[in-house]
Amino acid sequence: MSTIFVCGATGTQGGALIPHLLSNNIKAHAIARDPSSKRALALKSAGVSIFPGSFDDASSLRTAMTDCTALFLNLMPSLTDPTQELSQANRILSIAKEVGVQHVIYSSGLLQDLEKRTYWNPDRLGLVADVLLSKRAVEEAVRTAGFKHYTILRPGNFMSNYLAPFVHVQYPGLVERGVVTTAFTPETVIPTVDPNDIGRFGAAAVLEPGRFHEKEVGIVSEILGLEEIMRILAQATGRELKVEYMAQEEIDAQLATNPFLAGQLVARDMSEFVDMADVRAWGVPIGTFSGFLERERELVKETFSV
């Protein structure tokens, strides 16, 4: 039986992966700063082995990864220290190699060919550029670490960003005023992903390491324009929702202080770097935005007070 160490098991991606692992009889280990938290206890009751610790604690990582054959590497970028993600990744990869992990699965993003992006300008994008370059450095660390197998997952824009708690940071004003103000354009189409699909692909990679070896896998559920996203969300909430597109002058004035706008700017042409035919060719089921909202209907009600 395979055993995998899951980074971020209490978060969006790790939390989506865990059920698919357990349903396939794959054992999961994870660490939590507070093993008595509600989420950690829920994982433990589901069968996950929870260890106290953090990604900065080599000793707890070593204990938690002992006997693991695979690693799901999934790290949150820091908005104050862009070097943190790479530092943590190097520590985790080093210990994983030491304890005998055979397969590393890194969940990154649609970061390929950054220099070909129309709006890629590290000097203007500031922190967002630092974060994306750090993730790219982690990818290279994974490729060159010498594991028997490695896989890089490239998920698109999370559907969960339109629900609490993320919507309040990603799209301020959407819940309160029914208006999303954006650096996207009316022509922008967004490669969206149901986090559950990340879990499906992650579990598939664990089950078939040879098939997924050295593969960089785009994971997109649907490609949608923002107005279409608002239309589907409005149907689910019963509220009138609309999009306001920012003028380029407004965007330029806020780039230095608003990393979420900077992220939207560089993502305007993100759909050009993923092919849905390639996603479907893996044979892994993928969802839809309306299906995601139906599954999360209680959170939809809670978020939009409907």
Automatic annotation (TrEMBL):
Which CDD domains does this chain map to? NmrA_like_SDR_a (cd05251)
Pfam family for this entry, one? NmrA
Q: Which GO terms describe its cellular component?
A: nucleus
**Mind listing the GO molecular function terms for this protein?**
oxidoreductase activity
Cite the entry's keywords alphabetically: NADP, Oxidoreductase
Residue stretches making up the NmrA-like domain: 2-258
Q: Does the keyword Oxidoreductase apply?
A: yes
Domain of life, per UniProt, equals: Eukaryota
> Which InterPro entries does this entry report, sorted A to Z?
NAD(P)-bd_dom_sf (IPR036291), NmrA-like (IPR008030), NmrA-like_oxidored (IPR051164)
Family indicated by similarity: Belongs to the NmrA-type oxidoreductase family.
User: What protein am I looking at?
Assistant: NmrA-like domain-containing protein
Q: Which organism is it from?
A: Aspergillus sydowii CBS 593.65
